[in-house]
Design brief:
This is SAC9 C8D domain-containing protein. InterPro entries: SAC9_C8D. Pfam families: SAC9_C8D. It comes from Aegilops tauschii subsp. strangulata. The protein is mostly helical. It folds into two domains: about 45 residues, no CATH class; about 140 residues, no CATH class. It is built from seven helices and two strands; from the N terminus they run H-H-H-E-E-H-H-H-H. Strands 1-2 form a two-stranded antiparallel ribbon. A hairpin with a 6-residue loop joins strand 1 and strand 2. Helix 1 runs parallel beside helix 6 and helix 3 crosses helix 6. The longest helix is centred in the C-terminal third of the chain and has 36 residues. The radius of gyration is 22 Å and the shape is globular.
Length: about 260
């Protein structure tokens, strides 16, 4: 059959992590349908010199992403409202979202009339590079804007405020037509890195619960009840504080911006 490209292989890896499958389970599933696992390895789909450049770009993206999320989380003190329809750091279309059409002037991905979103839920932004209107599916993630514009180059390392470069980061977007393939691939690699980290964290938590069960001789349902009680207590605390948090422990939001 037709071989997969790098992006399709990365989407396959994303699906694997969403399903919480191990690499061995993935390989067995592929072999059961006659697919050799090595043929869907994204590392083998590009030459070594290109892989080194992609790795370097992804390392830079990971550092920028860490700074962005630390700054945003600390500066908001948990009060920021997340818009599920907004363009996030990666904006990965793992489900094959198509262009919304209509006001979109970019049309970077195929537009399917049947899957076009309604006007009430469509998101359109202006590309900071070409100044064309783009729908969410045709936008690259915020990470692409960082890599293209070197936004953090102009930010102060100590102190500062949420104006200037940070507001540009929060409000600016770039379309997929203005991004080269390496930047788009770096977004996939960084997204998979985060999913791997989340999976390791989940497995560590499960192992910790299992260890508690072995030491305390607790039944599985009692462990789940204790976890539920902790989560319930956290929810009650948030209600008591009206979803606000004390600023006493936050004299500075981060190394980039103060509260």
């Amino acid at each position: 059959g037709k071989s997969l490209n790098f992006e399709q292989m990365m989407k396959l890896e994303i699906k694997r992590l969403y399903l919480d499958l191990s690499a061995a389970e993935r390989d067995r599933a592929l072999l059961s349908i006659g697919v050799i696992p090595a043929t869907v390895d994204p590392n083998r789909s590009v030459d070594y010199s290109y892989l080194l450049k992609l790795s370097s770009l992804t390392d830079k993206l990971a550092l920028l992403g860490h700074s962005v999320f630390e700054d945003r989380a600390n500066a908001s003190i948990g009060l920021e409202k997340v818009n599920s329809h907004a363009v996030d750091f990666w904006n990965i279309s793992e489900n094959g979202e198509s262009c919304s059409g209509g006001a979109c002037e970019v049309r970077a991905v195929s537009s399917l009339q049947a899957s076009a979103t309604s006007g009430s839920t469509s998101l359109f932004v202006e590309c900071s590079q070409c100044e064309r209107t783009a729908c969410k599916a045709c936008c690259a993630g915020k990470g692409a804007f960082l890599l293209l514009g070197n936004t953090y180059r102009d930010l102060k390392i100590y102190g500062g405020n949420q104006g200037g470069g940070y507001s540009a980061l929060a409000d600016s977007s770039v379309c997929k037509s203005c991004c080269n393939e390496m930047i788009k691939q770096a977004l996939y690699v960084d997204y998979v890195r985060v999913l791997h980290s989340m999976r390791r964290k989940g497995r560590a938590e499960k192992a910790a619960l299992k260890a508690v069960n072995q030491v305390c001789q607790l039944e599985p349902n009692r462990i789940s009840d204790s976890v539920h009680s902790v989560q319930s207590g956290l929810r009650q605390l948030k209600q008591l504080l009206d979803d606000e948090e004390s600023l006493a422990e936050f004299p500075h939001a981060s190394f980039l911006h103060t509260v």
